[in-house]
Amino acid sequence: MSETLAHSGNVDDSKRTWLIATSCAGAVGGIAAVVPFVSSFQPSEKAKAAGAAVEADISALKPGEKMTVEWRGKPVWILRRTPEQLAELPKNDSLLADPKSERKQSELTPAYARNENRSIKPDTLVVVGICTHLGCSPSDKFQPGAQPSLPDDWPGGWLCPCHGSTFDMAGRVYKNKPAPDNLEVPPHVYLSDTRLLIGEDKKA
Ligand code: FES
Known about the structure:
Layout: H1 2-6, H2 14-23, H3 28-32, H4 45-49, E1 54-57, E2 66-71, E3 74-80, H5 83-88, H6 105-108, E4 124-128, E5 139-141, E6 157-159, E7 166-168, E8 188-192, E9 195-198
Antiparallel strand pairs: 1-9, 2-3, 3-4, 5-6, 6-7, 8-9
The structure holds FE2/S2 (inorganic) cluster.
């Protein structure tokens, strides 16, 4: 399957990448299920396609819940992690390819997310939901423990259905997987306790 995807086009093109993502098993539900927040999108469709920042109202997001907003044609996941999920993160470090998010910092992890949680506020993770291998959208696997395609001591995270890359609850990729890098943390900033701006990080 990797050969097919590898030769299917320019995976760096956002439209193409999204086509690949939505063609993968289980990927479609990711963005369709979300969007109780469509009304919070401020820019026009044209502006959004051009890369305008989008606002997200996270006031309804409870611990353990994830929502998705669309930015530059890509799904951006906002996950409010539980204290238990946060407590697991340091235990994963030796199993991860880039636990400190030191690779491709300018592309993947802004300075304010270069910490153990990869987030501004410890509980709230913001990542682009596109696998860094060939652009599929990983599936939520937040439930810890043994389950198909995952290790028995799985602590919760994401599984990419295309070629099996796994990511922890901070979007950090596990070692020896096809995906080379952690999930991208997009530029973002809090406009208030409950409003996030995704795509810019200069406003406050
Ligand atoms: S696209 Fe290949 S593992 Fe995710």
